[in-house]
């Protein structure tokens, strides 16, 4: 098995406004940069092979964490929310009526208008994880909530209907074990990025 450590990027203005962000390349907000500046990656993970999403908010988070990013990894870009990107849930309900609720009830098979489904995201994350497992190199990734939720789904068979099986703290490292046969399991979740600063 090969450990994969995942960190979600810091907050952007759209995160603060509860807008679906997806592939939109939003930078960290001033508040987001300030928040990430209080984080520290635990020593045990610093020497992992670190990669980042191609989106600037992930790269900015990695830079603030002083991580040595080896390359940008397209497989861990955020879910494509299609025509829903940039909107709040209230706005989407005004535009599409009850269609959003109907699609949300499909869990892994929710597909935004002209976007991709969580199942699509899970498939590409799984393929990437299998590749990492084949190398046997412990790997870290600065990525997105959708990517970490996909990893949780792979590890737990969560259908993304209802609440996740584990409560996720987003100022944390989430570690999974990947196997070359494609199986995925939780190693440890919610390892605080605040611990070394506070200590």
What does this structure look like?
With 199 residues, the protein is an alpha/beta fold. It has one domain: Phosphoglycerate mutase-like (Rossmann fold), CATH 3.40.50.1240. It has helices at 13-16, 30-36, 43-46, 56-64, 89-96, 99-104, 118-135, 145-156, 195-198; strands spanning 2-8, 49-52, 69-72, 139-143, 172-178, 184-192. The protein has a six-stranded mixed β-sheet. Helix 4 links the parallel strand 2 (49-52) and strand 3 (69-72). Helix 7 packs across helix 8. The longest helix has 18 residues, at 118-135. The chain is globular. The protein starts with a strand and ends with a helix.
Helices and strands, with pairings:
Elements: E1 2-8, H1 13-16, H2 30-36, H3 43-46, E2 49-52, H4 56-64, E3 69-72, H5 89-96, H6 99-104, H7 118-135, E4 139-143, H8 145-156, E5 172-178, E6 184-192, H9 195-198
Parallel strand pairs: 1-4, 2-3, 2-4
Antiparallel strand pairs: 1-5, 5-6
Helix pairs in contact: 7-8
What is the gist of this entry?
This protein is of the alpha/beta class.
| Secondary structure: number of strands | 6
CATH superfamily, called what? Phosphoglycerate mutase-like
Assembly classification: single chain
- CATH topology title: Rossmann fold
Features:
single chain; 199 residues; alpha/beta; Rossmann fold; six-stranded mixed beta sheet; 6 strands
């Amino acid at each position: 098995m090969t450990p994969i450590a995942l960190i979600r990027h810091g907050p952007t203005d759209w995160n603060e406004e509860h807008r679906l962000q997806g592939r939109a390349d939003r930078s960290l907000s001033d508040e987001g940069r300030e928040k990430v500046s209080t984080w520290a990656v635990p020593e045990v993970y610093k020497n992992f092979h670190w990669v980042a999403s191609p989106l600037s908010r992930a790269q900015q988070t990695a830079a603030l964490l002083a991580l040595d990013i080896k390359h940008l990894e397209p497989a861990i870009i955020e879910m494509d929310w299609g025509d829903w990107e940039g909107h709040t849930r209230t706005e989407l309900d005004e535009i599409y009526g009850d269609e959003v609720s109907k699609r949300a009830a499909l869990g892994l098979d929710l597909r935004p208008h002209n976007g991709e489904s969580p199942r699509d995201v899970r498939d590409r994350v799984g393929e990437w994880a299998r590749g990492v497992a084949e190398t046997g190199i412990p790997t870290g990734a600065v990525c997105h909530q959708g990517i970490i939720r996909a990893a949780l789904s792979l590890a737990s068979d969560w259908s993304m209907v209802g609440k996740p099986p584990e409560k996720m703290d987003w100022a944390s490292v989430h570690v999974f074990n990947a196997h070359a046969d494609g199986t995925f399991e939780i190693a440890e979740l919610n390892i605080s990025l605040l611990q070394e600063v506070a200590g």
